[in-house]
Amino acid sequence: MNISDPIPSQTIIDTLFVIAPQFYTTDPTKLANYNTMIGLLRCQVNEQVLSCCGVLAYVYLLAHWLQLQTSPQTGVATNLSEGELSIGLAISPDSSILNATQYGRLYKDLIKRTVIGSTVTNLPPNFAVINACCCQG
Q1: Beta bridge pairs of residue 79
Q2: In this structure, are residues 3 and 32 in contact, taking their beta carbons and an 8 Å threshold?
Q3: Model-level pTM?
Q4: Which helix (H) or strand (E) segment is 107 a member of?
Q5: How confident is the model over 68-99, as pLDDT tens digits?
């Protein structure tokens, strides 16, 4: 596989089953949904910059959304009570949705540790613009 080739969906799914075995399935409908989700996530992962960590980035994002899908209350409310109404939130309203699951936090940590200069790797890098801004005197 060439570095410019996209990471195969099957590699991402196989790794998902190792990292998050609770999502293991042989159901063709669920596997088709996993492939659809991977297709939708492709715009959020820069495979060339992440290099060998690209598979993990996909797996963390996929597991994050699968966990939210199977447990929609995740990240919303941690406790509720009736007397003198009290609702506790797992994440603050202004926090990133990625903080709602451990997989989202792992993704954020992976991206945070993969930075090139002032370019954050989960954004498409445009090195010409960066060089033009930084290198002009």
Answers
A1: 88
A2: no
A3: 0.69
A4: helix 102-112
A5: 888 766 555 555 555 666 555 555 544 578 88
